[in-house]
Amino acid sequence: MNERRTRRHSRRSRAPLWIGALAVVLALGAFLIGGSPPRPPAASMDHGWELVLVNRDHSLPEGWDPELVTLTNGIQVDERIYPALQEMFDDMRDQGVYPVVRDGWRSQEEQQELMDDRVAQYRDQGYSRSESRELAEQWVAIPGTSEHQLGLAVDINPDTALSTGDQVYTWLAEHACEYGFVRRYPPDKTEITGISNEPWHYRYVGTEAAEEMEELGLCLEEYIEYLDGDRAA
Ligand SMILES: [Zn+2]
């Protein structure tokens, strides 16, 4: 992932207020007749871009439009996290651990496709529509609420010819925070994050926050609460 080029994807235009209100009404209507749940309120930028909290309760910030870098395998990430990601990967390889970026930035359409595919898989296994959706949502974020849509999160897998998953995940769990990345969905925080254990999913938050989160044993939801509490005090 040494070659890089940037591109800008299309900017979302600002819609008048009544269109927003109409969208909420329509989303709510769709939800009541068994469609997708309404999109939660937009995430706050209060703590800076590195600490934007996107999850099932907070969707992408209004007008989020990162500059993207394309890695040699075609995966794209926010260019602001690229230097740290590159440095981390260089150091891993120097230590004989070989990772690959399996997924980075995703568009709204890609996220929707992932969700639809996962729901269809459960439907094929015989689950009802609502059961399938519920099961799928444990693994796939509702479109508009995935960290991948921020471009600040990466799924890191082993380069299987050279390393095992264990080697890569263990290295990351021990060292990623030194580069500003946190394991976003650890097994002991699933009740808070709402996402099952994902040892491959890392989120860039900057080194200061990453090391503090590690030290205090907080996931991003808890860390934001901690910062907000600090500010209120
Ligand atoms: Zn992921």
Structure, described:
- The chain has 233 residues and is of the alpha+beta class.
- It has a domain at 42-106 and 146-233: Muramoyl-pentapeptide Carboxypeptidase, domain 2 (2-Layer Sandwich).
- The protein has helices at residues 17-32, 82-94, 108-124, 129-137, 165-175, 190-193, 207-216, 220-232; strands at residues 6-7, 68-70, 76-78, 99-103, 153-158, 181-183, 201-204.
- The strands form two sheets. The protein has a four-stranded antiparallel beta sheet. It has a three-stranded antiparallel beta sheet with strand order 1-2-3, with no helix packed on it.
- Helix 3 crosses helix 4.
- The relative contact order is 0.14.
- Residues 1-14 and 28-34 have low confidence and may be disordered.
- The protein binds zinc ion.
- The site of zinc ion (ZN) has 5 residues, from strand 5.
Write the layout of secondary structure elements.
Blueprint: E1 6-7, H1 17-32, E2 68-70, E3 76-78, H2 82-94, E4 99-103, H3 108-124, H4 129-137, E5 153-158, H5 165-175, E6 181-183, H6 190-193, E7 201-204, H7 207-216, H8 220-232
Helix pairs in contact: 3-4
The structure holds zinc ion (ZN).
Keyword list:
233 residues; alpha+beta; Muramoyl-pentapeptide Carboxypeptidase, domain 2; 4-stranded antiparallel beta sheet; disordered N terminus; binds zinc ion
